[in-house]
Amino acid sequence: MDLIRSATDQKDQKVVEFLEKNSREELTEMADKKKNSESLPVQNRTSAQRMSARIELPDITIPYLIPGQEILLDDGKIHLKVVENSENIKPGSGEKRRYFAKVLWGGLLKSRKSAAFPGAKINSPTLTKADLENIRLAKEMGVTGVMQPFVRGREDLECVKNALQEAGAEDVKLFAKIENLDGVRKLEELLPGADEIVIARGDLGNAVHLWDLPSVQREISQKCQATGKPFMVVTQMLASMERNPVPTRAEVNDIFHAVLDGASSVMVTGETAAGDYPVEVIRYLVNTVRSAELVRHG
To answer: For the chain, what are the domain ranges?
Structure first.
């Protein structure tokens, strides 16, 4: 954070610093870290190919690992279906129960990627102890905004606001991430409690059919505009630029129309956090936004 502030001070630019509390999306870990702690191929294999990929999921997901339950990894890039679980775990052995899933479509899985369980209602606390500690540090670190993921209702926002108040950080803005159907359905009751709405298309795209995602985004945009609530659009704005120096025409068009639809901000994530062309990403993002604003404001 100090490096970011130093750079922006030199350029005489302001920076908005976010704290995103521990997300409710479950995160994968590599089960055998000796083999590969960074990535793992998860692929369909024939009966002659007896290799298997092993991943670990948080304990909170165990009740939902039942035959037929689908699992979407890394924003849906990898699709599994649970087929059975192993009962022959020796008591006191310390070995975790194993669950087996069929790979419906595979890919390369990296550590700490999201795991979504379509149709499952996984109840997790709004704030964990780690979240409360981070909120306590937010004020002294100069954080200007807190992002609350997977907002389910007004109670989630009230919980975070109370925590901010207790930490003496009432001036820190609260960003409500809409990532599930609860958030979409209850948007109108969430609007008064949030400083800004975040249309988080990664997990939202797991909650609805991808072909319905544009209309859901438009619906959220229109409700925000009607009430004067600022909103942000995120996820895969320039995803192809993680490995390519030039975006696709569709990505540029996506950013352009997000701004035309009234977005107060757009944000990239993996493109700059883990991509090969972070400078080029920002150049295309900024120039596309500026082009759209010329049209939007006449």
So the answer is: 2-25+121-296, 27-116
- Residue 176: closest CA among 163, 157, 192, 204: 157
In this structure, are residues 295 and 263 in contact, taking their beta carbons and an 8 Å threshold? no
Report pLDDT for 50. Answer: 46
Are 50 and 44 in contact by the 8 Å Cβ rule? The answer is no
pLDDT in tens, 143-187: 899 999 999 999 999 999 999 999 999 999 999 999 999 999 999
Alpha helices in 69-212 (DSSP H): 129-138, 154-166, 181-185, 187-190, 201-207
CB 132 within 8 A of CB 21: no
The answer to whether the CB of 43 falls within 8 A of the CB of 77 is no
Contact status, residue 102 vs residue 52, Cβ threshold 8 Å: no
CATH architecture of 27-116: Beta Barrel (2.40)
CA–CA gap between residue 66 and residue 99 (Å, rounded): 9
Quote the CATH superfamily of domain 2-25+121-296: Phosphoenolpyruvate-binding domains (3.20.20.60)
84 Cβ neighbours under 8 A, 6+ residues apart: 67, 99, 100
